[in-house]
Give the backbone structure.
Amino acid sequence: MEYSHRYPAYPTQEVAAELEYHINVHRQAYNYTLYEYEHVDADDIGSAYKHHSRLPDWKDQFSVFSAVNSKALQRTITRFYQNLSGLSEKKQNGHKVGELKWKSPREFKSMTFSQSGFELKNTSGRRATLWLSKIGDIKIRYHRDIPDEADIKEVTVKKETTGEWFVSFGLETDDENLPGKPDVNSLDASNSVGLDLGILNYIHTSDGKAVDWLDLEDEYERLRREQRKLSRKQEGSNNYEKQRKQVANVKRHIRRKVLDYQHKLTTWLVREYDAVFVEDLDVKGMLEQSYNARNKQDAAWRQFITLLDYKADLYGTHVVPVEARGTTKECAACGVETPKSIWVREHSCPSCGFETERDANAAMNVLQRGFSELGLGWPEDTSVETALPTDTAGFQRVSAKRVVETGSLGA
Ligand SMILES: [Zn+2]
């Protein structure tokens, strides 16, 4: 499977200048590919592979192309053809699209080293060094390990509009090196979990854990402050532009914090359990949330589920989406549906008398639906009551801070 890891990078001023120079040469290579594609009639134009063979000519004509790594230069030509095929795909799907355009420096901020010309070194703790040919060493914040069995296929270096640098490793792990998923018949309530993805930013698990969301109050307060400042600036002025960047910075900071947190949570889940069942959120969102809040929340949970999904293969865990409709209303013990208002926090079944927290009941239903999705019945030796670890009086609270600090939710 293919996936990627992204890290903040901290080039020295000297190396940063070198990076910018190289990216600019790649930009020219990209534009020159476009030029040749449109104006030159030759046999070796029309596909990335054929176009690569024009590189020696380029270098004879323009010495600037000799200054950068050859494989990376090939990759830039490939990028042009990828954009081209992306464009024609959109056209075929009935979208109105223009032609590929020349890229200005503002629009071209990255380059990719493919197969060679790079090396990841000194990975110890949270630091590492990326070496790039014809450029040098770049320090990176190595906050997530690249798995031993992964091959690094390529490295993309990018400068964000904020001026920050990032490197992104394109990784591939052979399927035969991936841990196998446990036999479904070995799954039971002790090694599987159902998740209730909350409306108010939390997760409840079917085995009785309540995981808080990150506290982003300070960040959102800062965002509001910067947005107020922006509203007082004259649109189009220098100060306006400066302030617009400030707002973008805070937003980006929040997004990154959320993503980092979701990485930790999802990694914990796929390590801890053999099977993770999760609600397909669309329906629930429509029913229980206002439109605007729903969009934001849906986006966050969708990202969460996407991460969970790709880690399922990486760590050898079943991740199965289940129908979300009715998980709150349905009684996990007897299946009878009882309508509940959104503010009713308890589940108390008028039919069988089963009582627990609203979200525990929902998570239990997710677990059961997951089992039936996999063609398994509810394990006979596990009644609903005993599947909950405690007396169901309350969830074991796990604070977001603990997830961030230890990357673990264990007691
Ligand atoms: Zn019941």
